[in-house]
Amino acid sequence: RPVFTKQPGSVVFPLQPGENRREVVFSCEAQGHPPPFYRWKLNESFILPRPGSRYSLMGGNLHISHLNKEEDVGIYQCLASNSFGTIVSREASLHIAYLENFKTQRRSPVRVREGQGVVLLCGPPPHSGELTFTWIFNEYPSFVIQDTRRFVSQKTGNLYIAKVEPSDVGNYTCVVTNTVTKSSVQGPPTPLVLRVDGVMGEYEPKIEVQFPEIVPVAKSSTVKLECFALGNPVPTISWRRVDGASFGRKVDINKASGVLEIPYFQQEDAGIYECVAENSRGRNSVKGKLSFYAPPHLTEKPQDVQKTIDDTLVWECKASAKPKPSYRWLKNGEPLDPMEDRVQTNNGVLTISSLSLADIAMYQCVAENKHGRIFTNAELRVIAIAPDFSQNLLKAQTLARQGGDILIECKPRMSPRGVISWRKGKEALRESHRVTVLDNGSLRISNVSKMDAGLYTCVARNQFGVASSAGSLLVKEPTVITSPAGHLDVTVGESIVLPCQVSHDPTLDLKFTWFFNEQLIHFGSHGAYFEKVGGRSAGDIMIRNIQLRHAGKYTCAVQTKVDSVSIATDVVVRGPPGPPVDCQVTEMTETTASLSWGLGMDNHSPILSYTIQARTPFSLGWQAVTTVPELLGGKQLSATVTDLSPWVEYEFRVLATNSIGTGEPSKPSKKARTKEMLPRVTPARVNGGGGGRSELVITWEPVPEELQSGPGFGYVVAFRPLGAQGWMQAAVTSPDASRYVFKNESIPPFSPYQVKVGVYNNKGEGPFSPVTTIHSAEEEPSRAPGRLRARSVSASEVEVTWRPLAWSNNRRRILGYELQYWGEREKQDTASLIRTVGNKTSVLIRDLEGSSTYYMSLRAYNSAGVGPQSVIVNVTTKKPPPSQAPVKIMWNTSNSKVILRWDKVHALENESEVTGYKVMYSQDKHSRPSVVETNTTSLELSLPVNQDYVIQIKPFSEGGEGSSSRQITIPKIAGGTILTHET
């Protein structure tokens, strides 16, 4: 079939004056087999290219020589034809652009008064194609400059001067340019002279340049509206839309407001536009409607189709356009005959019924409005064939369920459609109330029985031949679910089995599918809850550890190749109650809160009781509370919580309990604060003492915020000397305070005082704590300890002794002693410090360096501070112990004795002499060793037999213990004598 690969396009051809030898070519090319031949139309009439004429064909292209602007302008169309049909190309227009010269006759002077407006006419010569206009003032290249007073219309070419001034006098020449041919011509000059009969007075604007009442504008094109007025004073020009809409950013107002330009015109730009001319004498306006139009654009087009004889063709053709398009159809390039009853066209839809071979053709839909038309092509083929089952044989086997219905389809390919009949076995099939041959040839059997099984043959005939196809019908036993539909009632946490037992035809495979609340159960993706437990003829499933969310409808669906059945079981899951709802605080007092709540889900077990919990910013999570009534029954939906702390913010929640358990708590109530009241709790651990000279220090444990009972909380501190009558009092305003210091020079040292601490808040004063006795500040010790002595015990230890001071008197106590010690290369202010407690008179200083001199001093201390320093004494530590470990250790065993020998350890020059050795032995490396000392280099040990021993030897001196030897393992003694040594 022919398909266009090139189609002609519209041409605007420039032709200079006197020129007629130009040539134009319209392209047309189509593919097809056999190759198409071409014809052309001009203005709906065929062009006949004869030898010597100006028209010739080269392939499908049309050549026109010696253009004639009277004969060749018009609409061209190419037709391509082959044995499949004819198609028509899109329309292409030919316009010839030209511009002739002005007539040379002179123009009369235009006489005008100063202040008057004037119009100078251009009167362009004969032309075709778009023109532009300019005016020369007096002589080239002095051109008229457009401003608010002067305007050149590009529609008419005329020059408008709103108000003539003396400087405007002179000759004016209109210059016309053809935008296609690029040629320009000048008209004869028009003189402008001033009349001498006076100056024109002021007058209101008179609009001389205006636009039509209706301006059709194509989609996406650019529209320009011109507006200019004469008047004195010079009028101002403004633009507006009558509907009040504002101009978009793309709208351009130029030429001193004389031109409104709208590029890329769209539907929303359509409307009524108004030009307003104003001056001090008045106002005038003109209106015009810009109407949007769009040529047709195809949105749905027919596709090539192949049909059989007597079939029906339906083609739909749709296009978008403004105004709406009309549709017509072409058959092989000619208008389709709508007179035949079987051919219907309706709003772009073509319907041809009872197709015949005569309908084979190329069809084209033409969508058009007054702004353009568009063509689309489609091929219709009508085929005639004998019956043929090769592409659609009957199914070799059709399975049917006994008692069910079955449809055996028979769909041979044939054109025209003929007669279809059926045979069962070798006999013609008789139709009955159960056996029916449908209009489309398919065989339907209702209430199938075993007798219906057998071989069925479909026979198709038309005038071109006959064909048949056969297939077997097998009748199977129906599938029946033997498990009864049920209702199960279970408790959360239990495991249950949902049965799905079936009887079925043994030759058919079963497929079991389970649904929960109409949703497919994917086994393995629901945690470990669902599990298949059925055999070949059972689809049972188990639900382990069932939860509340598993309550609902369970459906078992069973499928075979011939039928499907299903059964449903409703499962009710009983569990602890759901959370109560809408927990609210209805009233708060100082120590109580009234609560109400609503019923939650009982989860199929009646609610027996409720529990209320509370929390505060000071509590560790939620705590159970006391209520009235004390026991809250299952129908109780309100209660009063008691024993609350005043002036504390509380949240409450409610939990419901049934026979299965306690459920989730309700959402917490909104936070609510109990009312304030007098404080009731006094500070704990009231005590005191210490401090500086002339001070009485009183301490206590602050009252927690939740026990302060209201804002403005503080303490009242009361004190008096022991035995006095009246109390002195002081207020401490900080609720976090934990001490008060009373300072007065009259306070004797270490005197007994009675003290108590009370509480208050904005409501008033609360109780005092019990009275306790404390002492005022004592004086620091006044004497230094005597007889300070220091003795080196080893290379790293020094023992310090002193004579104690008297333990106490009525003004001071001795709580212990403070010892300072420092090396000879250190200063006292960096000394190390050791404090003793009680009446201790000695201390051992450890971790010192050997052969080093240390200085030390001693002071007594008490709660007031330290006393004077004792005399400073010094001591030199002993030399360090030997650094060499014992070596060449030899040993032998006999019966239960071990004899050890080793080399003597010699001290170095700066080390103290060896005075003896320590031998340590144990059964393993981790147990505590036994120690034996000797001042010789040998030792005999009696050790039990049948045990391993670990032995180490280290020297010692007055400087302390030296380095230890390596560990020696002596294996258990086994009767003989073993001799070995370790170095």
From TrEMBL:
Membrane topology category: Lipid-anchor; GPI-anchor
Listed SUPFAM superfamilies: Fibronectin type III, Immunoglobulin
Taxonomic path: Eukaryota, Metazoa, Chordata, Craniata, Vertebrata
Family, similarity comment: Belongs to the immunoglobulin superfamily. Contactin family.
Protein name in the entry: Contactin 3a, tandem duplicate 1
Organism, scientific name: Seriola dumerili
Protein location: Cell membrane
All copies of domain Fibronectin type-III, residue ranges: 579-677, 682-779, 784-880, 882-976
Alphabetized Pfam families for the sequence: fn3, I-set, Ig_3
Record GO cellular component, one term: side of membrane
GO biological process: axon guidance; brain development
Main location group: membrane
InterPro entries: FN3_dom, FN3_sf, Ig-like_dom, Ig-like_dom_sf, Ig-like_fold, Ig_I-set, Ig_sub, Ig_sub2
Start and end residues of each Ig-like domain: 2-95, 100-186, 205-291, 296-381, 387-474, 478-566
Subunit structure: Interacts with PTPRG.
GO molecular function: cell-cell adhesion mediator activity
Keywords, alphabetical: Cell adhesion, Cell membrane, Disulfide bond, Glycoprotein, GPI-anchor, Immunoglobulin domain, Lipoprotein, Membrane, Repeat, Signal
Gene3D superfamilies named in the record: Immunoglobulins
